[in-house]
Amino acid sequence: MEFSKEYIESFIQPRNELLIEMETYAKEHHVPIMQLPAIDALIQLLRIQNPSKILEIGTAIGYSALRMATALPHCKVVTVERDHERLQAAKQFIARSEAANRITIIESDALEVDVEKFQSTFDAVFIDAAKGQNMRFFEKYSPLVPSGGVLYIDNMYMHGLSNLDIKEVPRRKRTMIRNLKTFTEWVMQRPEYDSTFFPIGDGLLICLKR
């Protein structure tokens, strides 16, 4: 049984003016942010987990970081982004929020960050960056997650492309989709994680570290 878009959206939680402004900005400037049902689901899962520190890979304009920090008033968020223009927008938006003092922004390619500088572990890692690099992100940052911690990976559907035969995927996106399929098979076979796929938004993969 499939639910209508209207029915699903009836459960979306109200957002404040700043978040709505960010949603409008993202749409107007073609910046990908999490779909509202998916971000609501992620936030609820994080409330249940109740992390004290989250690492986000892929800040964009800071929407997800701000949603997470706002929903979890005792949590600190560290977020990494390499796109300078988007990062400037993120800094401006976050500076206007009450959660600004709990969000640390790092301007860098996430694959080039020296993880030893963190000098701490993270209860949760949220990966929402270059989809073809998910395995490299996972391998690099999963050691920072202790037993009982969770890695959340968004965009596993890739707008339906990951469900297609590779020959049906546009040529310019085939390498990315191959990498995504390889990562999916690889992570689901990792014995040290209990991994579950949530078919919500653009697809959310949740990996609980044993």
Describe the structure.
- By secondary structure, the protein is α/β, with parallel strands linked by helices.
- The protein has one domain (5-209): Vaccinia Virus protein VP39 (Rossmann fold).
- It contains seven helices and seven strands; from the N terminus they run αααβαβαββαβαββ.
- Helix 3 (36-49) packs parallel to helix 4 (63-71).
- The longest helix is centred in the last third of the chain and has 15 residues, at 174-188.
- Homodimer.
- One of its GO terms (biological process) is tRNA methylation.
- InterPro entries: Cation-dep_OMT, SAM-dependent_MTases_sf, SAM_O-MeTrfase, TrmR_methyltr.
- Belongs to the class I-like SAM-binding methyltransferase superfamily. Cation-dependent O-methyltransferase family.
Mean pLDDT: 91
Report how far apart the termini are. Answer: 33 Å
Which class in CATH terms? Alpha Beta
**Apparent shape:** globular
Oligomer state equals single chain
The CATH architecture comes to 3-Layer(aba) Sandwich
Number of strands: 7
CATH H-level superfamily? Vaccinia Virus protein VP39
Total domain units = 1
- Sequence of strands across the biggest β-sheet: 3-2-1-4-5-7-6
Order of helices and strands: HHHEHEHEEHEHEE
Q: Which residues sit in consecutive blocks of at least 5 with pLDDT less than 50?
A: none
CATH topology name, in short, is Rossmann fold
Biggest beta-sheet profile: 7 strands, mixed
Content of β-strand: 15-25%
Total helical segments: 7
For the CA atoms, what is the radius of gyration?
A: 17 Å
Class derived from helix and strand content: alpha/beta
Helix amount: 25-40%
Protein name: tRNA 5-hydroxyuridine methyltransferase
Binding site for S-adenosyl-L-methionine: 34, 64, 81, 109-110, 128
Function: Catalyzes the methylation of 5-hydroxyuridine (ho5U) to form 5-methoxyuridine (mo5U) at position 34 in tRNAs.
InterPro entries: Cation-dep_OMT, SAM-dependent_MTases_sf, SAM_O-MeTrfase, TrmR_methyltr
